[in-house]
Amino acid sequence: MTAASSSAKPPLPFGEFIALISMMSALGALSTDAIIPALPHLGAALGVTDANQRQLTISTFFLGLAFGQLFYGPLADSRGRKPAIFLGLGIFLLGGLLSYFAQDFQVLLLGRAVQGLGLAATRTIPMALVRDQFVGNRMAQVMSFTQTVFILVPMLAPSYGQLVMNIGGWRSIFLSLMVVGMAVLVWFAVRQPETLTPEKRTPFHWSTLTHTLKVLLKQPQVMLYTVMAGLISGAFMGYLNSAQQLYQDLYKLGTNFSLYFALVALSLGAASLLNSQLVMRLGMQRISQSALWGVLLLAIGGLGASWLTGGTLPLWGFIVYLMCSFFGVGLLFGNLNALAMQPLGRNAGVGASVVGAVSSLLSVPIGTVIGLSYNHTTIPLMLGLGSMAGLCLLLSWLKRTVDTQVPSSAS
Questions:
Q1: What single DSSP character describes residue 112?
Q2: Dihedral, CA atoms, 263, 268, 274, 280, nearest 10 degrees?
Q3: Which domains does the chain have, with CATH numbers?
Q4: Torsion region of 252: left, alpha or beta (phi above 0 gives left; psi -120 to 50 gives alpha)
């Protein structure tokens, strides 16, 4: 079932549309994960003495991503989806240049923030492109297919970054990211037609934007699942921030870090693939609730095992814990975003901006705190995953309680 009439066709063949949307979205993951192996090298080159401070190269990227999403949605609704993507990828290329030529850590952080600001377009607009054409469980299925392709990039990104760094040094990673960004830009410009026709566009006025934001903020389903997506994304960002230290400093894996990182990312991809099949039968809400309980119970078990082993699980136990937990996280990513987007209709552009910006603004401080709490044990990460899943369950329970009380009070 599509949002358009039965005679409407997707702008691209389904497979190519999935591949293009996935690569646009995956550019953000590539820009995040490819630099993880380079953190010790760029830190040493730019005079960063505190290992935890190197994590800010990831946090500032997500900060730019968060603020940028507030801008691209209104632009996409007023000018069309394609101009917003063109502008965003152009800003991303500028951020890549700043990062490549940075001679001190502050300039590098600025470049990373500009990169994130630009890639906010590829975070927001693909959701609107999907929402232009699909609704309901079908939309969740499309997002899950996209996630399945998209997850291959986080699996391979650290190995990609390691290879590029071995050839040309850590700065060459930023140069290669600009090449990939340009390739995506050309593919999108040549092959993807505009999905928002002129008669459906909303002229940009600050009053209209403010009114639309107020309407969206008053929709309980939109805000509940946006907040939940932010909490889960924050826990996952805590893992990304501390991954290099966990694998290379704590477990002494060296360059083998990329292999274990890919193994854990595989569980995310498997969950997304399975979700694309299950969501049509079980529904988004049921799957999300089950996944949250799984992440919470695994965290409790992992913390108990860590306490018995002096704060750090053996490597095999930690990998098993991560794979099981992130299988649950993989089930949550597509479903929570789809649940938040479901009521938005023609306001998909602004709605995608609100959903993306609020969830990202929540995830940045959460992920930064979890990452900076790294203390040479696995405990901070487990606490972060468990507490965020538990808070999501609490919010979901509170909403169900309010919903059941409203009819009785009205009567």
A1: H
A2: -170
A3: 14-191+208-403 (1.20.1250.20)
A4: left
Lowest mean pLDDT among 66-80, 240-254, 375-389: 66-80
Predicted TM-score (pTM) of the model is 0.82
Q: Give the pair of three-digit tokens for residue 174.
A: 């930023």
Looking at per-residue pLDDT, the higher value among 155 and 374 belongs to: 374
Q: How is residue 203 annotated by DSSP?
A: -
How many Å apart are CA 364 and CA 360, to the nearest integer? 6
What single-letter DSSP state applies at residue 195?
A: S
State the virtual CA torsion across 377, 382, 385, 387 in degrees, nearest 10: -110
What angle in degrees, to the nearest 10, is found between the helix axes of 257-282 and 284-308?
Answer: 140
Any idea which residue has 């995310």 for tokens?
268
Question: Cα(378)–Cα(77) distance, rounded to whole angstroms?
Answer: 44
Give me the amino acid identity at 270: A
Q: Which of 64, 25, 71, 19 is nearest to 349 (CA)?
A: 71
**Rounded (to 5) percent helix, strand, coil in the chain:** 85, 0, 15
Please tell me whether residue 376 adopts helix, strand or coil conformation: coil
Q: Are 63 and 158 in contact (CB under 8 A)?
A: no
Nearest residue to 96 (alpha-carbon basis) of 3, 181, 185, 22? 181
Could you say which DSSP state residue 2 is in?
A: B
CB 193 within 8 A of CB 181: no
Q: What is the mean pLDDT of the chain?
A: 85
**Of residues 355 and 8, more confidently modeled:** 355
Q: Return the minimum-mean-pLDDT range out of 266-280, 317-331, 396-410.
A: 396-410
Query: How far lies 370's CA from each of 40, 214, 240, 359, 383, in Å?
Result: 19, 31, 10, 16, 8
Residue 194's pLDDT is what?
82
CA distance to 122, 236, 246, 281, 312, per residue, from 115 (Å):
11, 20, 26, 39, 35
The average pLDDT across 44-57 equals 91
Three-state secondary structure call for residue 102: coil
Q: In the beta sheet, which residues pair with residue 225? A: none
The distance in angstroms from the start CA to the end CA of the chain is 36
Give 200 or 396, the one with higher predicted confidence.
396
